[in-house]
Amino acid sequence: MRSPLPPDLETPAAETMSRALEDRPTRIRVDLDALSHNLDRIRRHVGVPVMGIVKANGYGHGLLRTALHLQAQGIEQLGVAFVEEGVALRRAGITVPILVLGGIFGDQVTQFLAHDLEITVSSVDKLGQVEATAAAMGRPATVHLKIDTGMERIGVHSYSAGPFIEAAVASRWCRIKGVYSHLACADDPDSPMTTLQLERFLDACRHFERLGAPMPIRHIANSGGVLHFRDTWLDMVRPGILMYGVRPDVTALATVDVRPAMSLLSKVIYFKVVKAGNPVSYGATWAPEYDTRVVTIPIGYGDGYPRALSSRGEVLVRGRRFPIVGRVCMDQLMVDIGGYSAWNEDEAVLVGTQGAERISMEALAARAGMIPYELLVGLTDRIPRTYVGGRSRS
Ligand SMILES: *Cc1c(COP(=O)(O)O)cnc(C)c1O
């Protein structure tokens, strides 16, 4: 939508808004040292190069800062979902190889080539499209061939991979850097699906040998694969959520020692006594049995804090764990601190550690009936991200 304001009026307004947001008591704190630690632990665990997945705003941690930090740690490769994310990374000065995992829409191939982004080729048709555009631009395309081994999302079925790989090998303008697939059930260490997918994938890769073509980089392991299935590590791994220190599921095994990079923090902004029987928040769904102390925290579902946590979530204040009471509002929520005291400006931890208490992303997501991925990427831009650790502080 076009703004009705001329640009000279629009820009200062936007700046004032973002400065105002910086002052919000609610913030996401990203510990860049945790990110380095996790990358290091994953590397040692798998012993092969890592493609760090930074799609969806770096799983909520901030696309550019996360990618710049990973690049500074010498990460071999980055992965994003869409070409737009790849272009944003290039504009921010990211020089490491970037694979776009999603499909190609319309005539985006020119954008891939112009910004030196690696392309996922997921059908013989798309291969032809990439080949034609690369030839017209006189620029070779770097591609990864996508094989579908059981996800049924994008990619050529492993049982039809022969002609696909043959066409790719024969192409003049496509340089085949990788061949890959995606695991559907790797979060579950007991699922037989992963072994089946791996077998299908390795069968498909044999076509390179059959054709006498060099074997490209084979990659299939997401975070679940890294955690649970050694055989899937192959030539490169593609962890997303695990790199941020969050396990894909509460039931995932902690085979790699990672630390959560994100904390979700706010402050107490209001304190009151609620008298017995007086309901709190929209819908009057909760009321105390006795007079109690209730504080207000300025975060809500408008920030991506799930409304499903109404009377279910918990918040840490002064090193103690207290329940959210009544409905989570768009911008605020209420917490029952019982007989304890709290002061305006006291730190409130929604995800993270305070004293001896901790609220994990995995546990909070489970409580909300969500997966940790959903919770992470749902945290909106209205929450300012601050970064600690790394080389500089800001
Ligand atoms: C998102 C994604 C990943 C990373 O998944 P995690 O479960 O976060 O590790 C890896 N590969 C592909 C193709 C993806 O889309």
UniProtKB/TrEMBL annotation:
InterPro entries: Ala_racemase, Ala_racemase/Decarboxylase_C, Ala_racemase_C, Ala_racemase_N, Ala_racemase_pyridoxalP-BS, PLP-binding_barrel. Pathway: Amino-acid biosynthesis; D-alanine biosynthesis; D-alanine from L-alanine: step 1/1. It is an enzyme of class 5 (isomerase). GO terms for molecular function: alanine racemase activity; pyridoxal phosphate binding. CDD domains: PLPDE_III_AR. Keywords: Isomerase, Pyridoxal phosphate. It holds the Pfam family Ala_racemase_C. GO terms for cellular component: cytosol. Its cofactor is pyridoxal 5'-phosphate. The modification N6-(pyridoxal phosphate)lysine is found at residue 55. Substrate binds at residues 153, 330. Residues 261-388 form the Alanine racemase C-terminal domain. It catalyses: L-alanine = D-alanine. Catalyzes the interconversion of L-alanine and D-alanine. May also act on other amino acids. NCBIfam families: alr (TIGR00492). This is Alanine racemase. The lineage of its organism: Bacteria, Pseudomonadati, Pseudomonadota, Gammaproteobacteria, Lysobacterales.
